[in-house]
Amino acid sequence: MFFSCKPAEMANLMEDEVFMAFTTYAAIVILKMMLMAPLTAYYRITRGSYANEEDVSRKSAEEKKKLLKAHPDVERARRCHQNDLENVIPFMLIGLLYALTGPELSAALLHFRLFAGCRIFHTISYITVLPQPSRGLSWILGMLVTFSMAYRVLSTVLLL
Questions:
Q1: Is residue 41 part of a domain?
Q2: 1 has a pLDDT exceeding 50
Q3: Mean pLDDT of 58-79
Q4: If I label 41, which of 78, 131, 157, 160 is the partner at 20 to 30 A Cα–Cα?
Q5: Domain count for the chain
């Protein structure tokens, strides 16, 4: 049942509340992750901080020297986006497998909501520079949620 879904079973999967909850929260964290690129671009433009020579190719040599520099706001947004990639992708893969194990809806919603909330709070704490341990705690809780789902997957389908 775990990986061999027939078309009729796929239709049932699309009606499964846990699977629908997963797709909802997966879409939320993916959209949040995708919005980090335009935010980084916004910071690059408004802070005059570019990383690549081609970004300032039409500028004079003096202007290029001023613009080809790092800025803390740009670096925070860029690192936040990198952190999203390192956390959202594992959540997506583990979360999908978790949803397929047939967990209780309430447990699944708790996992999905906690993870999405942690990622949103992590971004807010990163971008607005909230003091630690706010960002660290949100990262740890998000990782624990993913590990909890992974434990459920392994304990449900472990075939060694």
A1: yes
A2: no
A3: 81
A4: 131
A5: 1
The C-alpha angle 9, 15, 20, rounded to 5 degrees, equals 115
Residue 82 identity? Q
Q: Are 105 and 14 in contact (CB under 8 A)?
A: no
Helix (H), strand (E) counts: the chain: 6, 0
95: CATH: 1.20.120.550
Q: Cα separations (Å) of 147 from 11, 35, 82?
A: 29, 25, 20
**Does residue 46 lie in a domain region?**
yes
Give pTM, 2 decimals.
0.83
- Exposure string (b/e) for 90-117, b if CB count within 10 Å is 16 or more? bbbebbebbbbbebeeeebbebbebbbb
Range of the domain at 85: 17-157
Q: What confidence score (pLDDT) does residue 62 get?
A: 80
